């Protein structure tokens, strides 16, 4: 967490910690973790006479340190030396634990080896190993402290945190190479040429190894030793143990293991023994190799980064005694961190989850603050989003890391609570206050005195800016806050206006709702959730939109009711229109970590704020009908208190569901709901219905949730609800959301049946909508019947709506064509076209559609050139009337492109369909049915032009749409799949095509009752296998199909199998198969004569080949 800068030493004798690095890149990494570099202030400390070393001086983790670029240092004032850098690791610790490359090793002691030369053939010693003197008592005490489970976990956590910060600052040099590059070979497997016996220029004949890369030498992967930790990328962990230190690099795996076993070593290095007997020393090094012949220098820079961050983690736990400036070489004294003065109202929450982004942001800002300047931060968010929980967790983490720092908590929601906070500080810090009226001044002065230490004040619930602007003893409360650099201030607030009174806007950190994973973790702290109920739990946190307080409320509500309440039942209660607002009033949140003021009924969290707005004219406007110019003021008021938030485009606002439920509850209690609900229905109906008619689909999608919501309101009089239900059903059906469209349309019809007084006005469009839904579901007969009833109702209206009648005629025309009733289709299309011309509105999009349908009917008669002419006229007309960028214009281009394709005019068709697709993408969702159909038209045209590479991504997109939005029962799914696989085969991606085909077949086999799907799956696989050199598999698939198809299909499959056998010159088998097929085939089956002719022709060819 935040590190406090110590006083800058007056001279070089003020430095008591030395960091020693032997290699430049090791020192570079240490310099990068400096919290402060004193040389940047222009400070120079000089060197002692005769000292040839080079130094850098700065601050790490609150300690003044000197970094020496050498292997030794004078010991004038140094109390502890830390040797930092890289080492060679023993792969297995004495206790059996694994070390991997990048792990950090901290010395318990050092064994010195005076090596002469290490060779694969053996190890030549000049002297016996020597155990260096034991560490000082102080160092041993520090080691004992660091090895405790709690501190070791914290050390590892802090190392990873600092490493991530270092990697962000210098990603190139600190990058982790990945577990795949972490290679450990058997000790006897020497790093030399494995594929040749001739030595090269990099071979060392004395050591019997080569300096080239393992890949070049042919070191085999099958020789690698599998490691338990290296199944994925790993973060480094810290190990404590004995180092082996020598004057040469160890490059022999056999000797490494021998020495490690004899002396219980965990790592090897070269510099530590030179410092150990001079100064109290700790070695902090990271593994860059396994002390064998297979060294890889690419790991060195990363290992140096790990060692440097391990150093910083250790220094964060190191306490040096107070010492007079310039005192000589006092012994290291490790004392427990002094108990800081603190007042925190609640214990730490052991179930705290998530929020690492906010905590990291707070920490980073504290660590990067400017010396001499006070830092003020604020966390801002709506009520219930977890601001105070974040502040509590931050405070405890802060105290864990900075034992010299104190934290005080002040509730700033009222003048009384603020004053009580200052009384608590006076009590905790033992500030003598003789005059009660001088309390605020006395505490402020004491906090502002830098000699009293470093402090953080947490001001909680700064929601009302008026509180801190209240005058006490001649000054506003906010002026009793210290402004000196030794005091940092953290504010929690719902109100941006209140926060900016105290904190610069760039230091305000927004707190959003939780992500799904954190929300589930939080819910599990209150409920035991079995795996089978995970989906329900996920649905619950989605319904609660990740609001922590709502999740805690739900968990508590369910838990205290035992078996009487489940997640599923709670979801039913939460459902709007039932008891969603009622359950918010039911249960108190029994949470001892909240102040008593906050432990109230859940809905009151926002009701109190809403009630505070009651007499605010801007809020009054928002809940009434007023002038548009006042809207922005009202929204700004709610936004400033985090009750609503502007969307990215700034034209819309979002409100959390819990806030909305609380607002509904407040309105009901105050008798405002009925009028506001009626107004909401009218507003949504006007926007949604007009957008559907104008086909402004993005607007429809934005308003859709609101349309669904207002239909749940129970208001006096039906008003515009039937029209809204019709518009909603129409939009949903057009976007292929047929189940919901079907339900709403049926509910609308039932509503009109029970209210005949208003039924006549809405019945025709509703019947037409229902007819369209049934047609899309494939129930054409009933769709036609309802359409005709709708047409009759529309024509019977005393003031007939031409647009409505033409739309119904258009729909009936399309249904008739789908039923192959072209005479009826032509009749409907003629009526619609004449009606458009008679009303002189041929340029309207519904008129253009009517004439297009007429064209489609003509197309069924094969008059392609006439159709092309009329299509061009319609395209020109739509462009003039609607503009070039309009959905109808894009549809006209698409239809003309299809006509041109049918006439083999593929180049012009390609251009038109591309323009249509590009235009439709700007209007429709990516999964819309029209996008799918356009994609199929375009890649079909490209395929005709043999432009396979361009067709492939389009067909892939279409295939993905089908996979996301359609079932295998849908005919378009199979057509799209066949087309995609054909294109893959066309560009020689046979393996991918086969893989997809097998996946599809596997899915179809999961529903064995649906034989037709399995048959289609087998057909898809056959399509691909024909282009693969796998005749046996293709034959097996053909034979399997024969066993599951209908009689007429079976004959067709036998013919396909015969063709396959014919290509393999298995003529006798083909003859037997075809003669059997001819005997089985029946004249009543469709296509009999054509099949018989084809099989007879094939038999003739077979007999000719047999006779040869």
From TrEMBL:
Gene3D superfamilies: Nucleoside phosphorylase domain, P-loop containing nucleotide triphosphate hydrolases, Tetratricopeptide repeat domain. It comes from the Eukaryota. InterPro entries: NB-ARC, NLR-like, Nucleoside_phosphorylase_sf, P-loop_NTPase, TPR-like_helical_dom_sf. GO terms for molecular function: ADP binding; catalytic activity. Residues 370-526 form the NB-ARC domain. Pfam families: NB-ARC, TPR_10. One of its GO terms (biological process) is nucleoside metabolic process. This is NB-ARC domain-containing protein. It comes from Gomphillus americanus.
